[in-house]
Amino acid sequence: MIFNWNRSIWDLAWQRGTDLPPALLLAGPSGVGKGDFAQALAQAALCATPSSQHEACGSCHPCRLFAAASHPDLRLLEATSAEDAAAAESGSATADSQRIIGVERIRDLRDFTEMSSHLGGRKVILINPADRLHPSAANALLKTLEEPPPATFFVLVSARPQQLLPTLRSRCFRLDFRLPSTETALAWLRENGIDEPATPLAHAGGAPLAAAELARSPFWRRRQELTRLLGAADITAVELARAVDSAELGSFSGLLYKWCADLLSLRLTGRLRYNPDCAKSLGQLAVNSDVLKLQRLMKELTAAVRYLEHPLNPRLVCERMALGYTRALSTQEH
């Protein structure tokens, strides 16, 4: 799928007609449609009868194989858990289950790139997210791109292109994705059944696909209850911690960070960013909130991201967050 805000990038990708660069890097924030764009690009590159706008026809034999995820000239490389990745052979796997693309996944492409196309057209290799390439995998891929195989097209997708090897980036034609305008994003969200989309869009940093996913998530339905508790000036750390389930700790920490960011912004600039629907309660709290304690808590929440997926003691982590928050509301005595 090519979203309307990415249409100009599609035209740029095909500016040389059917002569695509050997490797494309789709770079930009999460939630703006890079993955859908990459899939559309791969299908179009394999299509037997593309349109004049270089879009896949959707009905030819290669397109039907693509739709069935059985096209023999397509390889999709996605990140897997480090414990299961072949790259762990060197001891690179860690207990935090970081998802990577291991070197063996790249080495396994050797036969694919050296063989002729099964259907007589291009071969496509789609790597998403490319910033999850293990260093040894990135180096192996670089060697391949230094002498690109004939009729083989690489598509790399990354929300963090700065984490890719500079030499790897230099081998790719880069397409930069941007956030759509707020008006465009809100209109798209409403068209896709998201009521009152301004708040999820703000929480998603302006990325419409991420906002839609957030608005449909089970945690978003809990947000109203949690923001009501956060907005109560007399809330205690115990009450707040009890209201948060251990399974939603990661989502709660993100919500708390954005809530504190709005308090801090209101305190210092008089503006808020993430929670426009809670402007009244945030405004009341911001008057007496402690700037230094808010900053300290936000720093702790940022650091906590590294271990929130598998905290040793979820309840203790939750209580620490709640205590830090209530202490930042300086109208209370602790």
Account of the protein in words:
This protein has 16 helices and 7 strands. With 334 residues, the chain is of the alpha/beta class. The chain folds into 2 domains: 173 residues, Rossmann fold; 112 residues, Zinc Finger, Delta Prime, domain 3 (Up-down Bundle), CATH 1.20.272. The protein has a 5-stranded parallel β-sheet. A two-stranded antiparallel sheet has the order 3-4. Helix 15 packs antiparallel against helix 16. It is elongated.
CATH topology of the largest domain: Rossmann fold
CATH architecture of the largest domain: 3-Layer(aba) Sandwich
Global geometry: elongated
Q: What's the number of helices?
A: 16
Low-confidence stretches: 82-97
Any idea what the CATH superfamily of the largest domain is called? P-loop containing nucleotide triphosphate hydrolases
Structural class: alpha/beta
CATH class (first level) name of the largest domain: Alpha Beta
Binned, the helix content reads: 40-55%
In N-to-C order, the SSE pattern is HEHHEEEHHEHEHEHHHHHHHHH
| Beta fraction | 5-15%
- Average pLDDT works out at 89
Q: Kindly report how far apart the N and C termini lie.
A: 54 Å
Q: Tell me the radius of gyration.
A: 23 Å
Number of domains: 2
Q: Quick one: biggest sheet?
A: 5 strands, parallel
